[in-house]
Design goal:
Layout (H helix, E strand, L loop, with lengths): L1 H7 L2 H10 L7 H8 L3 H13 L3 E8 L7 E9 L4 H13 L3 E8 L4 E7 L2 H15 L3 E14 L28 H12 L5 H8 L3 H13 L3 E8 L7 E9 L7 H9 L4 E8 L4 E7 L2 H14 L4 E13 L5 H8 L1
Antiparallel strand pairs: 1-6, 2-4, 2-5, 3-4, 3-10, 5-8, 7-9, 7-10, 8-9
Helix pairs in contact: 2-3, 3-4
């Protein structure tokens, strides 16, 4: 693992990525201090990571539940079909206003689709539309609801255990009133969360003090989860996987111990709590399938009475990785 990282990035680059993935708005001066380099070098290194496509952009992660939205997870299997028909299917998914995120996969399912809906009826309306248009190529599907979601930092960047970036979000829908001015600020942050306060003020005709206060209030209310970069670790020789965990007695109080173990694994970058056929989903970035299997074997060995079974899926393509919620809210309403 460490050798692969060294081939692609030196320790300074990895320190920069490790610091900025926790807070994409971190000032250059603070980034330089954490990386033990000068501000000039920090700025140059960051630009190089952007030019190489390792950092794909900087975004503002918002909590859908604060807008009264639930995230429904739709997993689908597709029959063998022409590449053109497959492209049409994923183009429809990508462009639909209810789709927050999706990915193409290799495994028991061919795609996972995150659907935003306030009610089961809204989700069912989308699902029926998808079936009407592409039912001929959908051979199987599973439906779940995300009840909680937590991001972890990439411990493997510095060969250290992962740490929780933010406490769980996407919990019970709790609508927060967001003003028109705040929505405009969120719209700008959602496309570039490293935009300066001065530029935000210029684009919104607000003074810097007002901008800072608004952002603080949005974070305090839970509307803003955190400011995140999109890091493409496939350029560093890593593969992205989804792991679906089927647990025995999931309501028996044993899940916390499993979650605690997962939080300490340097290659697990997210834990999703679900209601559906399985109880937990893990997002994993790792250098080989062999090492993924080794990690999951340890999980089963540590919790033989808890982990009933698991499925692994390779994420072959990620869509809507910006997680732009504001655009979806505007289009839905």
């Amino acid at each position: 693992m460490e050798d692969i990282n060294k081939k692609q990035l030196d320790r300074v680059d990895r320190k920069i990525l490790s610091a900025i993935e926790v807070d994409a708005r971190i000032p250059i001066s603070e980034l330089a201090r954490k990386s033990r380099i000068s501000r000039t070098v920090a700025k140059y290194r960051l630009k190089q990571l952007e030019k190489r496509g390792i950092i794909r952009g900087y975004y503002c992660l918002l909590d859908p539940s604060r807008f009264g939205l639930t995230v429904w997870k739709l997993w689908v299997s597709l029959r063998s079909t022409s590449s053109e028909e497959r492209k049409r299917f994923f183009s429809f998914v990508e462009k639909h206003p209810r789709i927050w995120w999706y990915a193409e996969c290799a495994g028991i399912y061919d795609a996972v689709i995150c659907v935003l809906a306030k009610t089961p009826h809204e989700f069912n309306e989308f699902f029926n539309l998808l079936q009407d248009k592409y039912g001929k190529i959908i051979t199987d599907s599973s439906i779940l609801i995300n009840v909680s979601f937590e991001f972890h930092n990439r411990g493997f960047l510095l060969n250290a255990p992962s740490k929780l970036i933010e406490s769980a979000f996407q919990q019970k829908p709790s609508v927060k009133t967001v003003s028109k001015d705040s929505l405009e600020i969120l719209r700008l942050l959602s496309t570039n969360s490293r935009i300066s306060y001065v530029e935000l003020g210029q684009k919104t005709n607000k003074n810097v003090k007002t901008i800072k206060k608004t952002i603080q209030e949005l974070k305090k209310s839970g509307v803003i989860v955190y400011f995140r970069p999109s890091i493409d670790t496939t350029k560093l020789g890593f593969e992205s996987y989804k792991v679906l965990l089927y647990l025995h007695n999931p309501r028996g109080g044993i899940i916390p111990s499993v979650v605690h173990w997962c939080r300490e694994q340097k290659n697990i970058t997210a834990i999703i709590f679900c209601v559906g056929p399985w109880q937990l989903e893990l997002e994993v970035e790792i250098d080989s399938f062999r090492n993924l299997c080794a990690m999951l074997t340890k999980l089963k060995d540590n919790f033989p009475d808890v982990v009933k079974n698991y499925e692994t899926l390779l994420v072959t393509k990620e869509g809507n990785f910006e997680l732009d919620l504001i655009d979806k809210i505007i289009r839905i309403h």
